[in-house]
Amino acid sequence: MKKLLFNLFLLVSTLSLVSCSGNDDDVSSGNKNELKVVIDGKEEVFNTIVVNKNAQNPFGTNEVVQLTATINSSTAKVITFLLEKGAVGNNTLGVFTYTDNG
Length: 102
What we know:
2 helices, four-stranded antiparallel beta sheet, two-stranded antiparallel ribbon
């Protein structure tokens, strides 16, 4: 019985080492800092994102985090979200603004 358990342990250990890949290119290729949204039927890709963890809440209630996204750091199109700190789920978005100066 001990020999069977030892062989099972070796098999599981070997399989766990073989299943780990040293090539993580597929995983990292989808890990981009961008925000894709559809506005008036057109997809916009905001690739410059700034997170302000100490933003002021205009309603004076809970603490918020402000996420501001632009396209190539230009102020032509700006999208801003206020998110409640630590909140998860459907009610986390406090304020949403989109400005198109272009």
